[in-house]
């Protein structure tokens, strides 16, 4: 039986420990050499769609009718019958000028007309008697003609007195200044007790509110690419807002370009039954400027920017992310129209772009819809 010394036992134990340590290091090296799994990304297939492209413009709201309320007769303001800033209807009395002087003129004109009619009655009777006498040759022809002329003059005087009365009645009616159109009245520029001069003194301003006009201008290129006529639907929103809650209709296109700006003026009519819009407000207008039967739309979050170039990642057949420089067009409900650099049917990375460390990396794609929540209406805005 062979005997093992203590020294040999220690050497054997040390060798076993070294072998175990080397085996552990080799296992860790093999583990560290294993490549990580491909990153998970979401991709969507590009499909051609028929869309209407809309252009965005800046405009201003204006009233179809703007009236400067001025008196037709002179006098002192006796009453102000409206609430400043309120809506008024056509025919509502806004101001009343002291009517007493004009009532007196009407009474004088009525009296003068009655006097002229009395003279006409007398002249008619004398003319009738002179005709009978002339038949019997009881009067001279000269007297017969004079009485007939007197009758004609009396008739003319009656007509003149009637016209004077009508003018006085109009002046009396004009002391009640009425709203010529329905709309919103401004503040009273003249208050009770002040003198208002006919056709000169500004009493207030009145603007119609329903419907309203929105004027905007389009550049020459947009007009040439979209030679449509009137009766085109437009969408209208207020400056600073995000949505376009008002629907309008294009009803006028100017007949010439502005030589200073090179733009053509458009006008849209928009209903305003609740008076939410007010003349003078700035507005944002969207108008259809083009249509595409096979537009390629991509989620705008998938489009990245590198200085002045735009690019996205397209998957190859072996699921490698390929960087692709593209040209973009207008926005369509959160999607971008790709005009160049992309083909229908290609897979575009739409989510997980931060996981793509470098072009050409292999990824694990998960197919999703390009439009997660399809909008009810396809609308595009200019970039």
Automatic annotation (TrEMBL):
<keyword id="KW-0175">Coiled coil</keyword>
<feature type="signal peptide">
    <location>
        <begin position="1"/>
        <end position="33"/>
    </location>
</feature>
<dbReference type="InterPro" id="IPR058627">
    <property type="entry name" value="MdtA-like_C"/>
</dbReference>
<dbReference type="GO" id="GO:0022857">
    <property type="term" value="F:transmembrane transporter activity"/>
</dbReference>
<feature type="domain" description="Multidrug resistance protein MdtA-like beta-barrel">
    <location>
        <begin position="225"/>
        <end position="290"/>
    </location>
</feature>
<dbReference type="Pfam" id="PF25917">
    <property type="entry name" value="BSH_RND"/>
</dbReference>
<dbReference type="Pfam" id="PF25876">
    <property type="entry name" value="HH_MFP_RND"/>
</dbReference>
<feature type="domain" description="Multidrug resistance protein MdtA-like barrel-sandwich hybrid">
    <location>
        <begin position="66"/>
        <end position="201"/>
    </location>
</feature>
<dbReference type="Pfam" id="PF25944">
    <property type="entry name" value="Beta-barrel_RND"/>
</dbReference>
<dbReference type="GO" id="GO:0046677">
    <property type="term" value="P:response to antibiotic"/>
</dbReference>
<feature type="domain" description="Multidrug resistance protein MdtA-like C-terminal permuted SH3">
    <location>
        <begin position="295"/>
        <end position="355"/>
    </location>
</feature>
<dbReference type="InterPro" id="IPR058626">
    <property type="entry name" value="MdtA-like_b-barrel"/>
</dbReference>
<dbReference type="InterPro" id="IPR058625">
    <property type="entry name" value="MdtA-like_BSH"/>
</dbReference>
<keyword id="KW-0732">Signal</keyword>
<dbReference type="InterPro" id="IPR058624">
    <property type="entry name" value="MdtA-like_HH"/>
</dbReference>
<protein>
    <submittedName>
        <fullName>Membrane fusion protein, multidrug efflux system</fullName>
    </submittedName>
</protein>
<dbReference type="Pfam" id="PF25967">
    <property type="entry name" value="RND-MFP_C"/>
</dbReference>
<feature type="domain" description="Multidrug resistance protein MdtA-like alpha-helical hairpin">
    <location>
        <begin position="106"/>
        <end position="175"/>
    </location>
</feature>
<dbReference type="InterPro" id="IPR006143">
    <property type="entry name" value="RND_pump_MFP"/>
</dbReference>
<comment type="similarity">
    <text>Belongs to the membrane fusion protein (MFP) (TC 8.A.1) family.</text>
</comment>
<dbReference type="GO" id="GO:0005886">
    <property type="term" value="C:plasma membrane"/>
</dbReference>
